[in-house]
Amino acid sequence: MRRLAHAGARAIVDMSYARHFLDFQGSAIPRAMQKLVVTRLSPNFREAVTLRRDCPVPLPGDRDLLVRNRFVGVNASDINYSAGRYDPSVKPPFDAGFEGIGEVVALGLSASATHTVGQTVAYMAPGSFADYTVVPASVATAVPSAKPEYLTLLVSGTTAYISLKELGELSEGGRVLVTAAAGGTGQFAVQLAKKAKCHVIGTCSSDEKAAFLKSVGCDRPINYHAEHVGAVLRQEYPEGVDVVYESVGGAMFDLAVDALATKGRLIVIGFVSGYQTPTGLSPVKAGALPAKLLKKSASARGFLLNHYLSEYRAAMDHLLKMYTSGELVCEVDLGDLSAEGRFTGLESVFRAVDYMYMRKNTGKIVVELPHAVNSKL
Question: Which of 47, 126, 185, 230 is the most buried (most CB within 10 A)?
Fold first, then answer.
């Protein structure tokens, strides 16, 4: 038996009649939907992922929500997922996407204790690159509306908040270097470090991004196309930096290690420069790493959000309050300045991934999923 609540009604229905129940209630939920599916393992997103147009709309279980997605978030790690790097035991086909925001259109009976049909929720769960996604109620966060700004907090905001809180040991007057600072997660690392009264340095790829970084409090933006990052760090910060929030890898990682101050902390949240390669890594001068860390009593630690889920709910609540009160800028890039315009519809996820790896985005890349005009919700 599957217990299902829908459109304010509650019912206990046999699995074989569940689809009939959804249609019988006069719902706007169609029988079929589109979604992006990883059909072969490859770091080339376009090769790995297929847009399937006639997939059955999934049914929520007892503790689940069925969410009609309004916006979905694009992450650098989407191609790690499509390459099978996170869980080698998972074989294609499997659904793509990590996060979304939209309306609850159906839910299981137990889930109806905490959520309602018509409620807007943001969530981090697999399979978000779809018109509809089944989401465990326990991981869905109710938000006031389907604004894409809320979506920026789910992965990017919480990654910055929890990693800096747990590993950064930020203190007033500390020097913090954020790489890829104008990106989806870098923007939050900059702002949170400033809230901790630190001096913040941020690397970026254009003067426009440098201007954005200044607008959110970055003390020293470095456009690496105009200035050499290593030279700036040596000349302007001869005593080094206390914390590095590092997501680029490769040569940038080497520069970050060299820039560490005595007792400095290097937080690795990614190494995007290598994700598109067969190994997922760009070469680093790691042979000297033990000596460099020892010489400075410095440390290098990795951070993966999934290992800190016990801190996730508190982090989301805190970030939502900051955004609501105007303390936090959540910059969204919907692709309006891209060559082909705004990222609209699942087919534009491919463009959005390319746009990210061309380093065009300022803020979090978000794709809008428009809905049919005859939708009832």
Answer: 185
- The angle that helices 251-259 and 289-296 make with each other, rounded to 10 degrees, is 20
Q: Please give the span between the terminal C-alpha atoms of the chain, in angstroms, as a whole number.
A: 27
- Look at residues 318, 303, 309 and name the one whose alpha carbon lies nearest to residue 168: 303
Cα 377 from chain centroid (whole Å)? 26
Look up tokens 């870098």; give the residue: 186
Could you tell me the CA-to-CA distances from 294 to 176, 240, 261, 263, 269 in Å, in that order?
20, 15, 12, 9, 22
Question: How many other C-beta atoms can be found within 10 angstroms of the C-beta atom of residue 309?
Answer: 13
- Give the helix/strand (H/E) hosting 349: helix 349-357
The 199-204 sheet, strands edge to edge: 220-223, 199-204, 175-178, 241-246, 260-268, 299-302
- 124-153: pLDDT as tens digits: 999 999 999 999 999 999 999 999 999 999
> Phi/psi class of residue 140: alpha, beta or left (left: φ > 0; alpha: ψ in -120 to 50)?
beta
Task: Compute the residue count for the chain.
Answer: 377
Helix runs in 27-70, H state only? 45-48
> pTM higher than 0.70, yes or no?
yes
